[in-house]
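Sequence in, structure out.
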Amino acid sequence: MKRQAAEASGRVAETIAANFLRLKGWTILDRRVRTPAGEVDIVMRKPGLVAFVEVKSRKDQAALDLSLDRQRLVRVAAAAEMLIPRYAQPGDDIRIDAVLIAPGKPPKHLEHVWQG
């Protein structure tokens, strides 16, 4: 049952993040894209730029601050590498971003969270 609750909570957080990013001018290309290397929560675009986004949601800020670890970002970067041909156009810049969500706080968009 805990797994189902976590899955539902993650979907809500991803929806909040996608809506927040749309308000910032991003076009959402896809959500919850799975690859053999891992999953990317959101794929988004602005002219000349494609970003692969990891969404993290925690019940408090302290837990949220610890939620982006190297192992998770390595998986997102590996998945993004597999997805670049599907979403990027020649000449596009590519980056890995994150959106952090905690109750009572606005979503926080972190750019360039991974430098491979």
